[in-house]
């Protein structure tokens, strides 16, 4: 199965003798899996083997190409070619996820690898790669993993705002932010950010696209249930998902005993 998986990936990323274009990669992978199952008595094991071989091939290509793109010793032409293939591999993984041949954990792993949590500045190419993947899977993640998507988008937007990225990359992030509001947000998702300001906690609430909803101050001794109750009292419509995150994009741990000021100080 490994040769078949390798041929499929190479045909898609442009390094093979023939090429497959979107949106055919996912259905072709599904059909190959069906064929393996049809001619195997141990269908469960056979199907799992094909999935594993396909994802391993994708992961190996992703890691090796990202290394070339990241390397300061790569020549311009080599890096450009590697980036083209990397974008195709990431797109392929996204489409495999949409047809349930790649797990959600694989998408999370790639996004977290590209943009690690925290306020360290990622390479610009990693932001562009995140945009490429989210354009494919963002709408699906909004349905199944809204909390993670909200936190990731918040981090991506903030890092871009603080960066010296070029105009093209900034436009891509703005585009992604707009899509997240207009197309992905099937549920009402509210992001609540909290930070210490003098002796108070400054709280701001925004939807996934960044539109301001409300802002207020709380005493530093307040606890998270107080914050949640205050947020809900200030907005008109009920929420499907309420996400508490820090300005860095990290999730605020839910602790109903510790004062908010202590949680912020510890983090």
UniProtKB/TrEMBL annotation:
Domain of life of the organism encoding this protein: Eukaryota
Listed InterPro entries: ARM-type_fold
Gene3D superfamilies in the cross-refs: 1.25.40.180
Protein name: Uncharacterized protein
């Amino acid at each position: 199965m490994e040769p078949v998986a390798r041929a499929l990936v190479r045909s898609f990323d442009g390094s093979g003798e023939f090429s497959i274009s979107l949106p055919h990669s996912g259905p072709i992978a599904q059909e190959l899996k069906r064929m393996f199952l049809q001619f195997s008595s141990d269908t469960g094991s056979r199907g799992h083997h094909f999935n594993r071989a396909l994802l391993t091939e994708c992961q190996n290509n992703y890691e090796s190409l990202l290394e070339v793109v990241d390397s300061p010793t790569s020549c311009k032409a080599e890096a450009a070619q590697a980036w083209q293939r990397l974008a195709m591999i990431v797109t392929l993984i996204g489409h495999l996820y949409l047809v349930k041949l790649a797990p959600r954990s694989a998408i999370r792993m790639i996004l977290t690898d590209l943009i690690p949590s925290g306020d360290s500045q990622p390479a610009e190419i990693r932001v562009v790669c995140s945009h490429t993947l989210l354009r494919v899977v963002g709408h699906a993640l909004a349905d199944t993993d809204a909390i993670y998507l909200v936190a990731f988008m918040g981090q991506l937007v903030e890092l871009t705002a603080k960066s010296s990225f070029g105009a093209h990359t900034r436009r891509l992030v703005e585009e992604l932010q707009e899509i997240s509001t207009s197309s992905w947000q099937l549920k009402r998702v509210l992001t609540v950010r909290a930070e210490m300001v003098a002796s108070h906690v400054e709280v701001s609430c925004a939807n996934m696209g960044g539109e301001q909803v409300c802002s207020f101050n709380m005493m530093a001794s307040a606890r998270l249930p107080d914050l949640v109750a205050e947020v809900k009292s200030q907005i008109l419509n009920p929420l499907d998902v309420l996400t508490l995150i820090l300005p860095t994009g990290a999730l605020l741990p839910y602790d109903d005993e510790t004062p908010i000021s202590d949680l912020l100080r510890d983090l």
